[in-house]
């Protein structure tokens, strides 16, 4: 009986040493995984922010499409023509400003 107890005690001691080694390795592995997860947190935050931005753009696009589709065709054409005139007038004014600026620069030499 004493012999059996000695064998069991020795086996339990060996097992406890091995279990302790496994626990140490597991703790090191968990620490490594936690460190890697912390490094990926900003990535998932950025992905979440991007998703919100895309959602906002979709909402704005739907809103614009609803507004445009509610305008009568004749009025839409009129709005487009006014916009086109304004666009070309602004472009013409900008070109005049650029020409004046270039002329001033040439006068400096």
Structure description:
With 109 residues, the protein is mainly alpha-helical. Helix content is 95%, strand content 0%. It has two helices and no strands. It has helices spanning 2-70, 73-107. The model has no long low-confidence stretch (mean pLDDT 80).
Proportion of helical residues: over 70%
Low-confidence stretches: none
Biggest sheet features: none
Succession of helices and strands: HH
Distance between the termini: 113 Å
Structural class: mainly alpha
Q: Beta-strand level of the residues, as a percent range?
A: under 5%
Q: Using only CA atoms, what is the Rg?
A: 37 Å
Roughly what is the average pLDDT, rounded to an integer? Answer: 80
Topology:
Elements: H1 2-70, H2 73-107
Features:
109 residues; mainly alpha; 2 helices; elongated
Short description:
The protein has 2 helices and no strands. It has helices spanning 2-70, 73-107.
């Amino acid at each position: 009986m004493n012999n059996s107890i000695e064998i069991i005690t020795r086996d339990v001691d060996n097992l406890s040493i091995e279990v302790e080694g496994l626990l140490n390795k597991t703790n090191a592995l968990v620490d490594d995984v936690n460190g890697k997860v912390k490094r990926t947190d900003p990535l998932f935050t950025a992905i979440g922010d991007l998703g919100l931005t895309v959602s906002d753009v979709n909402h704005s696009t739907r809103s614009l499409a609803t507004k445009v589709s509610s305008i009568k065709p004749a009025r839409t054409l009129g709005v487009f023509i006014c916009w086109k005139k304004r666009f070309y007038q602004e472009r013409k004014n900008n070109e005049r400003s650029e020409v004046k600026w270039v002329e001033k620069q040439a006068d400096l030499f």
